[in-house]
Task: inverse folding
């Protein structure tokens, strides 16, 4: 097996765990906040069940990218875990794994943590900065 890396990012979100969790399974919400702007999510499909799929059709500054995965765990409102494959990777069949946890903080906030593992080493910086920007975008959406 080739070398892989993992990215870990955490942030307190301005909403309860149930609200934050649901943003991850709502196609309209995902289209708004999932990819770091100026990258645009053109279409999202979500089959929110263990074994179900998630798919993002993305415009990355004029380059079309397909991100797809399969749900490994859905434990509302505490855990989401799914695979992540990117059509632009050197090996587009390689699957990484995204684990997102949601922990209550105080009465109405959530510590949301993501661990994105099994990434190609060349993707570390892109995903580390990308998840940070994406978390900012989600936090902004939650304050609407």
Result:
């Amino acid at each position: 097996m080739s070398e892989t890396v993992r990215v870990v990012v955490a942030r307190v979100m301005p909403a309860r765990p149930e609200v934050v969790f649901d943003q991850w399974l709502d196609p309209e919400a995902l289209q708004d906040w999932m990819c770091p702007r100026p990258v645009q999510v053109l279409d999202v499909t979500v089959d929110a069940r263990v074994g179900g799929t998630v798919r993002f059709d993305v415009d990355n500054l004029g380059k079309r990218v397909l991100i797809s995965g399969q749900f490994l765990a859905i434990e509302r409102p505490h855990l989401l875990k799914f695979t992540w494959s990117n059509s632009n990777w050197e090996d587009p069949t390689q699957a990484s794994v995204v684990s997102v946890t949601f922990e209550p903080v105080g009465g109405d906030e959530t510590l949301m943590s993501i661990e994105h593992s099994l990434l190609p080493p060349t993707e570390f910086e892109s995903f580390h900065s990308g998840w940070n920007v994406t978390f900012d975008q989600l936090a902004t959406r939650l304050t609407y």
User: Anything to note?
Assistant: The chain has three helices and seven strands. The chain has a mean pLDDT of 94. The radius of gyration is 14 Å.
